[in-house]
Specification:
Structural class: alpha/beta
Strand content: 15-25%
Radius of gyration: 26 Å
Shape: elongated
C-alpha cells in the first residue's frame, strides 16, 4: 500500500520533523534538490554521460528554493545552467533565500517574465532540461500570469513524448498551477492548454492526491517519489494518509472449504434480452471466490440464462413475493441488483432487498431508481455499496456533483475525494465513485483511491460491461465476509489488475477469467 497526502498534511510532516530537531529546513531542501537531480539522471541516464544545459524556473516560495538547489547541483556536474526567478528575492522564505545566495556565487539570476518565453527560450542553445520550480503544493490561487511560458512548456513536453527531441520538462512536486489536493487546474474555467505540463514530476516523501486525481496524471507525466528522510516524522505529525492502490491483504489463505463458508451471493437478472450484464456480475462473483452464486431471473428469461450458465445456479424470481420467499434463506448473505435490471423493476425490489439489511451492491439501474425515490435512498444501510459512474453520481448527488464540476478558482480545490466522502456520509454507506481515479469512501471518512493511471493505466477497461464485472467482484467479496469498504477497495484493485493482466483487446467477459492469473501472481 502507498499513501497519498494533501499539501497541508505534507507541511505538517515537515514541520514535525523540523520541530523534533532531527532535521533542518535547509537540509530538507538540499535533499529535495538532490532527489530531483537523481530522478532526472535515472529517467534519462544518457544525461549523466556528459554535461548538458538546463533552464531552471524558480518561484517565490520554498519550491523555488528547491529549484536553486537543483541549479547548483547541476552546475557542479559541469552543466550550463540558466536560472530565472519570479518575484522579489528579498521576499523569499529564509531557506529559499539561503539557497538563492548559494546559487548567486555560481551564476546569475534572471527575472522570470512571461514575455521572455514568447515562443522560445531566450537563448541560442536550447536546453536539454527545463525545471519547473515556480509553484509547488502550496499554490492556492490561479496561475494565469505565464500563458506564453505554459504554452512553451506544453510544446516541449509533447515534442519529447512524440518525437524524443527538444527539452524535457521536469516539475518539482507538481506542475505549476495544478492543485496538489484535487488534481484540478487552478483557473477561472480556463482550458487545460494553459496548465503547465511535465514529462517527469518529482514528488517528495509521498505522492499527493493531485498526482492521481482529475487532470493530475495528464499534467504530471511520469511521477516519481524522492525519499527526503521523513519516514519517522510521519507518526509524529499524526497525519492520517489516504490509501492508494491497495494490494489485497485479505487472501492470506485460499483453502478449499465447505461452499457455504465462502458465502452465497444472489445476483438479480434483467428481463429477456437484457440478461448479459447480470451474468457478467455472477461470473465475477464466482471467480473471486464466493462459495455459491445464484442468478435470480424472471420466468421469461429463465431459459435464456440457463442456456449460458453451468456453475452458477438459477432461481426463478418473478416479482416481489418470490424475492421475499427467496430471502428467507439466511445463507444468502450478499446481493447485487442493477446491471441490466431495468429502473422500474429495481424500484420495485429495492424495498425488499434493503429491508433484509444484508450486504448489497447497488449498480446501474438500481442507482437510477435510488435517485428517483427519496424513500429508497433513506432505506440505505451500512452494508450497502453504491458504485456510480460520473453520470449516475450526478443524478444521485446533484449538489455535490455541482461543487465538483465548478471551476477551481482557489486551492485547495474541492476534489473527487471530498465529493465521495460527502456522498458516503449522506448515504450512510460505502460509495465507490468510478473512473480512472476511482475513489472509495465510507461514512466515517475512511477513503481509498484506486487510480488506474501511470504504470497502472488500463484504458481498455472503458468497454461495455466492465462495470457489471466490478459489481460482481465486490458482491463476491461481500459474500466471503469482507466489510463493504474492504470489498469495494479490493474489488477495484482486482478489477484493474485483471485488465492489466489481459491487456489490449479486453472485453468484459475476459475480466472474470483473468482473476485466477492475478491470484497466482499474488502467490495464492
Amino acid at each position: 500500500m502507498t499513501e497519498l497526502l494533501t499539501s497541508a498534511q505534507m507541511r505538517a510532516i515537515e514541520q514535525a520533523a523540523i520541530a523534533s530537531g532531527s532535521v533542518t529546513g535547509l537540509t530538507l531542501m538540499e535533499r529535495a534538490g538532490q532527489g530531483v537531480v537523481d530522478a532526472i539522471l535515472k529517467e534519462w541516464p544518457e544525461l549523466a554521460l556528459t554535461a548538458h544545459k538546463a533552464v531552471v524556473l524558480c518561484g517565490p516560495g520554498n519550491n523555488g528554493g528547491d529549484g536553486f538547489v537543483v541549479a547548483r547541483l547541476l552546475k557542479q556536474r559541469g552543466w550550463e545552467v540558466e536560472v530565472f526567478l519570479y518575484g522579489d528575492p528579498e521576499k523569499l522564505p529564509p531557506d529559499a533565500r539561503a539557497n538563492y545566495k548559494r546559487w548567486g556565487e555560481l551564476g546569475a539570476v534572471l527575472p522570470c517574465e512571461d514575455d521572455t518565453f514568447d515562443g522560445a527560450f531566450p537563448t541560442d542553445d536550447p536546453p536539454s532540461i527545463v525545471v519547473d520550480a515556480l509553484f509547488g503544493t502550496g499554490l492556492t490561487r490561479p496561475f494565469l500570469s505565464f500563458r506564453h511560458l505554459s504554452m512553451l512548456l506544453n510544446t516541449c513536453q509533447s515534442h519529447w513524448e512524440v518525437r524524443r527531441s527538444g527539452p524535457r520538462v521536469v516539475a518539482v512536486d507538481v506542475p505549476s498551477g495544478l492543485c496538489a489536493d484535487s488534481g484540478k487546474w487552478l483557473g477561472d474555467d480556463q482550458p487545460l492548454d494553459f496548465a503547465n505540463v511535465a514529462n517527469l514530476t518529482v514528488s517528495f516523501h509521498a505522492k499527493k492526491l493531485g498526482h492521481v486525481l482529475a487532470n493530475g496524471p495528464q499534467c504530471c507525466g511520469k511521477t516519481v517519489v524522492a525519499d527526503i528522510g521523513l519516514r519517522h516524522a510521519m507518526e509524529a505529525s499524526h497525519v492520517l494518509s489516504v490509501e492508494h492502490g491497495s494490494q489485497p491483504n485479505f487472501l492470506t489463505k485460499w483453502a478449499i472449504q465447505h461452499k457455504y463458508t465462502h458465502g452465497h451471493a444472489l445476483i438479480l437478472s434483467g428481463p429477456s434480452g437484457k440478461t448479459g450484464a447480470a451474468r457478467l456480475a455472477a461470473r465475477a462473483a464466482l471467480r473471486v471466490g464466493a462459495g455459491l452464486v445464484t442468478l435470480g431471473t424472471a420466468h421469461e428469461a429463465l431459459f435464456e440464462n440457463a442456456a449460458q450458465l453451468t456453475a452458477i445456479m438459477l432461481k426463478e424470481i418473478d416479482g416481489v413475493e418470490a424475492l421475499t420467499e427467496t430471502l428467507k434463506d439466511s445463507r444468502i448473505n450478499a446481493f447485487c441488483v442493477g446491471p441490466g435490471f431495468g429502473v422500474e423493476r429495481a424500484g420495485a425490489v429495492l424495498p425488499v432487498l434493503l429491508a433484509a439489511k444484508r450486504p448489497t451492491v447497488l449498480d446501474a439501474d438500481a442507482l437510477t431508481a435510488l435517485s428517483q425515490d427519496e424513500g429508497l435512498f433513506a432505506a440505505l444501510h451500512p452494508g450497502c455499496v453504491l458504485t456510480p459512474h460520473a453520470g449516475e453520481f450526478k443524478r444521485l448527488f446533484p449538489d455535490i456533483a455541482a461543487k465538483l464540476d465548478a471551476p477551481a478558482t482557489t486551492g485547495p480545490a474541492y476534489s473527487k475525494l471530498d465529493a465521495t466522502r460527502e456522498a458516503a456520509k449522506r448515504a450512510g454507506c460505502v460509495v465507490l465513485f468510478k473512473g480512472p481515479d476511482t475513489v472509495i469512501a465510507s461514512p466515517d471518512g475512511h477513503a481509498t483511491v484506486n487510480a488506474a493511471v501511470y504504470e497502472r493505466a488500463a484504458p481498455w477497461l472503458a468497454t461495455a460491461g466492465s462495470g457489471d464485472v466490478l459489481a460482481g467482484i465486490i458482491t463476491g467479496l461481500l459474500a466471503r465476509g469482507h466489510s463493504p469498504h474492504q470489498a469495494a477497495e479490493t474489488g477495484a484493485w482486482l478489477h484493474t489488475e485483471a485488465a492489466r493482466s489481459f491487456g489490449p483487446g479486453l472485453i468484459a467477459e475476459d475480466l472474470p477469467e483473468e482473476l485466477p492469473k492475478v491470484f497466482r501472481q499474488l502467490g495464492l
